[in-house]
Every structure is written in C-alpha cells, then in structure tokens.
Design brief:
Its EC number is 5.1.1.7. Belongs to the diaminopimelate epimerase family. This is Diaminopimelate epimerase. The chain is mostly beta strands. Helix content is about 15%, strand content about 40%. It is built from 3 helices and 17 strands. The longest helix is centred in the C-terminal third of the chain and has 15 residues. The structure holds the ligand N[C@@H](CCC[C@H](N)C(=O)O)C(=O)O. Ligand LBFN2T5F binds next to α2 and α3.
Length: about 280
C-alpha cells in the first residue's frame, strides 16, 4: 500500500520517551487515515512513534469547533495502530512545546483543545511542561492478567480508560509484549494497563501497556492513574508522587480538586515526508 502525504512537514518529539510524530495541519486539510498513522508510527518502515499529534486550528475541526473560544489549537491524537484516543498526557505536553517553539503560542500558560476537553498547559523555565489533567474519576476495581498472573487494580478514567495495578512482583520482570487480559464488559473500548511497584516515599515505578500502542516507555494519563492508585493504597487523597517510568520520571500532584502532570517535553527532529510512503 502507498500513502500520499503530498510533501508535508513533520516534527518528532517525546515526553519521557513516549514519542510522537507531530503533523502541522493548521487549516485541517489533511485526511489522516488509520493506515497513514500506522505507516508513520512503524519503527522500521516509517518514522517510528507511539502516536501521532495532528496540530489543527480548533475552529476548522468539527470535533473541536465548540472549544475554539477557549483554545486556538486542537490536539488530534492517534495511537500507533491508527485508533483514536480521548486524551494523551505526554502528548499534550509535547504538543504545547511544539506550539511555542513554532511560534504558534506564546510561552506561559494556555489551553489546548483535546477530545477530553480543554487542558491548561504551562511551560516552565527549565524546559518542563506541566498540564492540568482534571479530576481523575475512580470507577471501581478491575483485574488484569499478565503472564498468566492476575493483578487487582483500580479502574480510573482520565478521559481515557486505565486499570492501575499496584503489585508485589517486580515490574522489571513482567512480559508486556502481549496485551494484558482484562474484563471486556468493563472496558468495551479497550484499556491502558499500568503495573506499579512502590519505590520509596511518594514514589513508584510504573510500566504500562497502552491501548493501541503496546508497551510504551511512559504514559502521562497512566502516570496520573498510577498516582491515584498509590494514594489510595497509602490512605491519602492529596500529595505529589514521582512516577518512574522506563523513559525517565514524571511528577503527579493530586490536590483533591484536580491533578497536575509535569515532566520534560522535547522536540528532537523535523523533516519532510516523501510524497508517498
Ligand atoms: N501515552 C498517552 C496515552 C495515549 C492514549 C492511550 N493509548 C489510549 O488509547 O487511551 C499519555 O501520555 O497519556
């Protein structure tokens, strides 16, 4: 199959190694198929990424036009397999970094439209980008099956679905090359599964298997769900957690009203797509 990209430009970026192909499409001219996303994200035959961030003006996109008064730009996020997701915490931080570096937004604080609503982002002086992720919704309990073992966890919605499991087995030894088992009736649209070990005072280690992308080296919405599960286990409702992931560390603050995710967000390359890929 050949895919026509018409010589469009791209930027590559990541947040704690959760990596993205960024496609500038201000006027919403790009008809981005699932096959095109999967081809771009292919780590051998494409650019390689966990997902795609299409950068489009909110007012020209039917999914975001209603949010245009609050956010000029809409993050159209797609998973590596081409599926659509409601939210991406690392993605929105990288998206904000791109907007500022491209001169499309002023440094400081501003809103980004997502399928999960408006997210307020802030660029710090040290290069970190933080985002108000909203109040996590705890929806009950759930069970994941990894390597034939059952792990109990918390069903947390961050706009997108999570199953955050605090476990006794070391997360380093888990095989996440295959999708964990989970209850399809609870998660009819799939789920992101986090496996978590305590790693000190208000610190945890997390690995994640993402819906639509497989195991990734970090997941922002997953880090917030992880902090919620860790807080519950500690009998706390507020506080700041360091979430160590394969690609670095992010910080999550729960204040009882909302949640904040902070960490690095960097752009590493840019270029032009060939007419056909
Ligand atoms: N990596 C993201 C989450 C991306 C979406 C997820 N795979 C889903 O399908 O819900 C993050 O940083 O939050």
């Amino acid at each position: 199959m050949t895919l026509d990209f018409g010589d469009m430009r791209f930027v590559k970026g990541h947040g704690t190694e959760n990596d993205f192909v960024i496609l500038p499409d201000a006027d919403g001219r790009l008809d981005l198929s699932a096959a095109a996303v999967a081809a771009l994200c292919d780590r051998r035959a494409g650019i390689g990424a966990d997902g795609v961030l299409r950068v489009v003006r909110s007012k020209v996109d039917p999914e975001a036009a209603g949010l245009a008064d609050e956010a000029e730009w809409f993050m159209d996020y797609r998973n590596a397999d081409g599926s659509v997701a409601e939210m991406c915490g690392n993605g929105v931080r990288v998206f904000a970094r791109y907007l500022v570096d491209a001169g499309l937004a002023a440094p400081g604080e501003f809103g980004v439209a997502t399928r999960g609503g408006i997210k307020r982002v802030r660029l710090g002086a040290a290069g970190d980008v933080s985002v108000d992720m909203g109040m996590p919704r705890v929806l009950g309990a759930g069970t994941a099956v990894v390597g034939g073992r059952e792990y109990h966890g918390l069903n947390v919605s961050m706009g997108n679905p999570h199953l955050a499991c605090l476990i006794d087995d070391p997360v380093a030894g888990l095989d996440l090359t295959v999708e964990p088992g989970y209850d399809r009736a609870t998660y009819p649209h799939g789920v992101n599964v986090e496996l978590i070990n305590p790693a000190g005072d208000h610190a945890v280690s997390m690995r994640v298997h993402e819906r639509g992308s497989g195991e990734t080296r970090s997941c922002g919405t997953g880090a917030v769900a992880t902090a919620v599960a860790a807080a519950r286990a500690a009998g706390e409702e507020t506080g700041t957690w360091a979430v160590h992931v394969l690609g670095g560390t992010v910080s999550v603050t729960l204040d009882g009203r909302t949640s904040h995710l902070a960490g690095p967000a960097v752009l590493v390359a840019s270029g032009e797509l060939p007419a056909v890929l």
